[in-house]
UniProtKB/TrEMBL annotation:
Official protein name in the record: 2-hydroxyacid dehydrogenase
Gene3D superfamilies: NAD(P)-binding Rossmann-like Domain
UniProt KW Lipoprotein keyword: no
Superkingdom of the source species: Bacteria
Species, as recorded: Pseudomonas monteilii
Entry keyword annotation includes Disulfide bond: no
Domain D-isomer specific 2-hydroxyacid dehydrogenase catalytic positions: 4-327
InterPro entries: D-isomer_2_OHA_DH_cat_dom (IPR006139), D-isomer_DH_CS (IPR029753), D-isomer_DH_CS1 (IPR029752), D-isomer_DH_NAD-bd (IPR006140), D-LDH-like (IPR058205), NAD(P)-bd_dom_sf (IPR036291)
Keyword terms of this UniProt record: NAD, Oxidoreductase
Pfam families, A to Z: 2-Hacid_dh, 2-Hacid_dh_C
Domain D-isomer specific 2-hydroxyacid dehydrogenase NAD-binding: start-end pairs: 110-297
An example molecular function term from Gene Ontology annotations: NAD binding
PROSITE patterns, A to Z: D_2_HYDROXYACID_DH_1, D_2_HYDROXYACID_DH_2, D_2_HYDROXYACID_DH_3
Length: 329
């Protein structure tokens, strides 16, 4: 059986090659992103392994099915980029990696908080240029601050544990309260209440029709002036133009993003020699109190190994007629 991995980077090749050692599964790595134009590359491959920014809409799925693909193996937890109704119509099974290393994403969210609070990005650039002054680098103690956790699944819970270790007071929002957070002393509130009370808000919820643009102009108006917002979840959880307005007014004091709604054409590519065509992202990058990383929160050795192992196990179990982690099949 052959599998083609779209959007594969060098680290994918390393982790999947290690995980597939001794397996009869034949892996092929394709750095190109899966689109309607590149779908033909999968002709003859029974399994297509896709990542979060690959296109899996109806036309792409139709072309894959016509080329002999029977399984879409996602290397991610999120699957809102897959047309599940069309996959079902075509008889395509879809599997995912529901959890790999919640610590990886949670720790990256904390890294963004620390870097923004202590202005590490500005301090780093200054000292490299011989400027050792401290003007404009004053932060605040995390101890005793109120942190709002939006989405309290595995990643949100891991994040909450870390922030509790700093001595933060925890607030939470989730339709299904997590006993682990309650044991940490977290209070579950409505979203407007959480936004009003929290000094720091971190998003860890999935992207659904109900959470799309969860953070918008109306919800941002509830923030304490100067609050910090962190998004390591999905880009479309926030209305980016509304974030810009809130940054300009000072309502939002700090912004850390590892995801961006229009990231598909940008992230995971080296575009350093090209003009940035995305005016919204370009505007965000002008703010000194904004840090953007390119969807790297998952990128730890442990997470990569787990993603590879679970993905290959998903493929092998499907081939054996005992599928697991099915989204559609």
């Amino acid at each position: 059986m052959r599998a083609l991995l779209f959007s594969s980077q060098h680290y994918d090749q390393e982790s999947f090659t290690r995980a597939a050692s001794g397996s009869t599964l034949e892996l092929h790595f394709q750095p190109a992103r899966l689109t309607l134009d590149t779908a033909a590359l999968a002709s003859g491959y029974e399994v297509v392994c896709a990542f979060i920014n690959d296109e899996l809409d109806a036309p792409v799925l139709q072309r894959l099915a016509a080329g002999g693909t029977r399984l879409i193996a996602l290397r991610s937890a999120g699957y809102n980029h897959v047309d599940l109704a069309e996959a079902q119509r075509l008889g395509l099974a879809v599997v995912r990696v529901p959890a790999y290393s919640p610590h990886a994403v949670a720790e990256h969210a904390v890294a963004l908080i620390l870097a923004l609070n202590r202005r590490l990005h500005r301090a780093y650039n200054r000292t490299r240029e011989g400027d050792f002054t401290l003007h404009g680098l004053t932060g605040f103690d995390l101890h005793g601050k109120t942190v709002g956790v939006v989405g309290t699944g595995q990643i949100g819970a891991a994040f909450a544990r870390i922030m509790a270790g700093f001595g933060c007071q925890l607030l939470a929002y989730d339709p299904y309260p997590n006993p682990e957070l309650l044991a940490l002393g977290a209070r579950y509130l409505s979203m407007p209440e959480l936004l009003r009370e929290a000094r720091i808000i971190s998003l860890h919820c999935p992207l659904t029709e109900h959470t799309r643009h969860l953070i918008n102009a109306q919800s941002l108006a509830h923030l304490q002036p100067g609050a910090m917002l962190i998004n390591t979840g999905r880009g479309a959880l926030v209305d980016t133009p509304a974030l810009i307005d809130a940054l300009k007014s000072g309502q939002l004091g700090y912004l850390g993003l590892d995801v961006y709604e229009e990231e598909a054409q940008l992230f995971f590519e080296d575009r350093s020699d090209l003009p940035l065509q995305d005016d919204v992202l370009a505007r965000l990058l002008t703010f000194p109190n904004v840090i953007i990383t390119a969807h790297q929160a998952f990128l730890t050795r442990e997470a990569l190994d787990a993603i590879a192992a679970i993905t290959l196990d998903n493929i092998n179990r499907w081939a054996a007629g005992n599928p697991q982690n099915l989204v559609m099949g």
